[in-house]
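sorry for the late reply, my laptop died twice this morning and i had to redo everyting from scratch. anyway the thing you sent over, i finally got around to it. pasting the sequence first so we're on the same page, its 91 residues, then the predicted structure underneath. double check i copied it right bc i was rushing
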Amino acid sequence: MGETLNTVQVEIFGQVYAIKAEADPAQVEEVASRVDSEMRALSRSIGVVDSLRIAVLAALNIADECVRLRAEVRRLEERATALSGEIEDIL
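ok and here's the structure:
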């Protein structure tokens, strides 16, 4: 059986949302804050006020960051595996 769902109230780009999640409330707040920050930064930089357009652009930026970070994690895992093999060879 899954964990208990926590309901966390967050504000993103001026709108209040009640989010239900198994995650720790502090994590939900951190994620919401990241989305809010990205949307506000985009709104300031491009001057668009349409919240849907801002949300889509923010999602694209955050997804791009996620894809790049996942690729970096894979690269670091491959490097760690290679180094582990080199250490085994030395020992």
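The chain has a mean pLDDT of 94.
thats about all i looked at so far, will dig more tmrw
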